[in-house]
Amino acid sequence: MSTRRVALITGGRRVGLAVSEALAVRGFDIALSFARSEAQAQAAADAAARHGARAQIFRADLAQPSECSALVDSTVDAFGRIDAFIHLASAYVQRSLADLTVDDWNAALDVDLRAAFLGAQSAAPHMRRLGGGHVVLVSDWVAASGRPRYPGYVPYYVAKAGVIALTEALALELAADHILVNCIAPGPVLPLPGASAESQAAVERAVPLGRWGGADAVAKAVVSLLESDFITGETIRVDGGRHLR
Fold it and tell me: 2-16, 77-91, 162-176: which range is least confident on average?
């Protein structure tokens, strides 16, 4: 079995690219999952490989419970181990309450919350055999602030609030196995595709630091958590102080 650490990252798009590259630089081999964005996941894997990492992508529909555990199994089959599970995949859709459907509700809860639980649950036995590991989940700065701020995101907000509770519960359950579980709550990191210059400028005015954080802000937070051996059950806001206003 290789002695290089292995990180499984769900979601290989913009933030996934930054996280995978940052971890590859620090000696991790990288497994990346994708649902539809195969080209972007492959680009992230290629970037990791340029830093000497073994990198492989796996297609997985994380809304399907069986595919969550299968993704972990595929990672262990390919690399021989798993040291970190980092759940970036998310379903983010704005829709009014009157127009919400059960499918809309399930899309957010299944991917953001249930897949986080199932991935961590499946990865834990493999980490236990190694003597420990890390789980990093992703919430949202709004959920970390403890109150909704924007209408139209009921399932998303509920799912992300649940991720914080899941982080704390898993941290307690897995502490004896030296598996540290933490959560990152990003704020204005990257503009949504197609966002106007005016809307981007409005976000910058609302952020005390006066700028977007960039995908590297999340990557740096992930790295800091993976380098710690005494932080667990914590939610860290990576939002440039946005929650202060």
Answer: 2-16
